[in-house]
Amino acid sequence: MHEIKTNHRLNPVVRKILKILGWVIASIIFLLVLVYVLIQIPAVQNFAKNKVVSYIEKKIKTRVQIGNLSIAFPKQIVLQNIYFEDQKKDTLLSGKEIPVDIALLKLISNEVNVGYLELKDKVKSFDQEVSDLLRRGKQFVRDLENKTKEATS
């Protein structure tokens, strides 16, 4: 009787493709872990804060200060010691801490999706009514959205 020997070894081309695919997947996982670790470093968060402040100030042409920005991956950003001025150089918002629940991964596609925003120890300009503050705040956000849409178009 003749025995038929079968070779269970993979074709060299298939092996090479699987090896490359394995390296690509491992590289992607490594990069995601690296980004996660880097986001936790205060110097990186400070760099991001400075970029955000600069971007907002250029877009809305008003003064913005953020003392500290901390990122609790994947959903929360905490802004500390913040100050926003409106177009009239009046205090729009000032506060010690503002936790913001945000979809950080959507920022990659230039989309800001805020799920929750809490104002702690807030201070507003005392020469205005609360309704005026809210109206100006909404207009401020609309102006920012319009300028962001124009920049991405």
Word description of this protein:
By secondary structure, the chain is α+β, with helices and mostly antiparallel strands. The chain folds into two domains: 9-39; 42-152, no CATH class. Helices cover 46% and strands 25% of the residues. Strands 1, 2, 3, 4 and 5 form a five-stranded antiparallel sheet that branches. A hairpin with a 5-residue loop joins strand 2 and strand 3 (91-102). The longest helix is centred in the first third of the chain and has 28 residues, at 12-39. The chain is elongated. The N and C termini lie far apart (75 Å). 5% of the residues are buried. The mean pLDDT is 76.
- The global form is elongated
Q: What is the count of distinct domains?
A: 2
Distance between the termini: 75 Å
Q: Give the helix tally.
A: 3
The radius of gyration computed from the alpha-carbon positions, rounded to a whole number of angstroms, is 25 Å
Beta content comes to: 25-35%
Topology pattern, helix = H, strand = E: HHEEEEEH
Helicity range? 40-55%
Output the structural class.
alpha+beta
Ranges where pLDDT stays below 50 over 5 or more residues in a row are none
Number of strands: 5
Largest sheet: 5 strands, antiparallel
Mean pLDDT: 76
